[in-house]
Amino acid sequence: MGIVNIDDELHDQLRKASAVACRSINAQAAFWIKIGMLCEMNPTQSFNDIVGRELRAAGVDAQVLRTVSS
Length: 70
Prior knowledge:
The chain has one domain (8-69). The longest helix is centred in the middle third of the chain and has 17 residues, at 25-41. With 70 residues, it is mainly α. 70% of the residues lie in helices and 0% in strands. It contains four helices and no strands. Helix 1 (8-20) crosses helix 2. Pfam families: ParD_like. InterPro entries: ParD-like. It comes from Duganella levis. This is ParD-like family protein.
């Protein structure tokens, strides 16, 4: 693990986003880095497509959520 130096304004935005997403600042930064890398590697896919694919790969089943909330 290393230290990443980022601009103060980006850190402030990261802190705000982490509060909304209920993640630590480090977890939010890791999420943005991972999704950014996946977006660069898959430029024809949308953000939603990439996140959906990652959720399915992790075993998340949206059908279960729909059944529970009904």
